[in-house]
Specification:
The chain has 208 residues and is α+β, with helices and mostly antiparallel strands. The protein has 2 domains: 113 residues, Metalloenzyme, LuxS/M16 peptidase-like (Cytochrome Bc1 Complex, Chain A, domain 1); 60 residues, no CATH class. It has 7 helices and 3 strands, in the order H-E-H-H-E-E-H-H-H-H. The chain has a 3-stranded antiparallel β-sheet. The radius of gyration is 21 Å and the shape is globular.
């Protein structure tokens, strides 16, 4: 550690600090508010696969990293048990898999906007009925919107415990990747959350 610290000091101490504040892009609101965004696009794939992806552009959510509202919603959307979207679509033989969420990368979540996507892998029969599949997805989202968040926090507590277990028992990653990820976290989170801010759920705020 002493040697590593010496190297870091030698290499990085000469980099000048310009003293400027962190750039802000808060004035660039609603980048997807264009006619081109409110459309259905058909893309011919290279592989023989049918996939329906529905994407919403939302206000920036990175400030709510301790709550992770999009993670909470993706957990409900991606549920595969009885009463879920995927369970219903599988009974119709329309879908094989479903994923919903936000990758929390710079493109999908930043200070200007956040993206939430639901992607359904369709069967050949499901491709013929993709309008109905989209309708089912929107119905489910509408139901979640009407019911609101679980006031008993059962679902949130379950997600919180699972994420905590995954964090505590995760496999050791490559040191270079770990440091890179840590440096990114230092730009986004409070000091006490550098190690955990991108993984753990800290608070339950149904209004968010």
């Amino acid at each position: 550690l002493d040697t590593l610290e010496k190297w870091v000091t030698e290499i990085f101490s000469e980099i000048p600090n310009n003293g400027l504040p962190k750039p802000s892009f808060d004035h660039l609101t609603q980048p997807f508010d264009t006619p081109e965004f409110h459309k259905l696009y058909r893309v011919v794939p290279i592989r023989k696969v049918h996939s329906l992806t529905i994407t919403w552009a939302l206000p920036p959510q990175e400030q709510y990293y301790r709550v992770k509202p999009l993670h909470y919603i993706s957990w409900l959307v991606g549920h595969e048990g009885k009463g879920s979207v995927l369970s219903f679509l599988r009974k119709k033989f329309w879908a094989l898999a479903l994923y919903g969420g936000n990758g929390e990368t710079g493109f999908e979540q930043n200070s200007t906007y956040s993206i939430f996507s639901i992607s359904v892998t369709l069967t050949d029969e499901g491709y013929k009925h993709f309008y109905e599949v989209a309708h089912v997805v929107f119905q489910y989202v509408k139901m979640l919107q009407k019911r609101g968040p679980d006031q008993r926090q059962v679902c949130h507590s379950e997600i919180q415990k699972i994420e905590a277990n995954e964090f505590h028992y995760q496999e050791q990653t490559d040191p270079v990747d770990y440091v890179e990820n840590l440096c990114e976290n230092m730009q986004l989170f409070k000091k006490e959350d550098f190690l955990t801010g991108d993984q753990l759920l800290f608070e339950y705020k149904p209004e968010v």
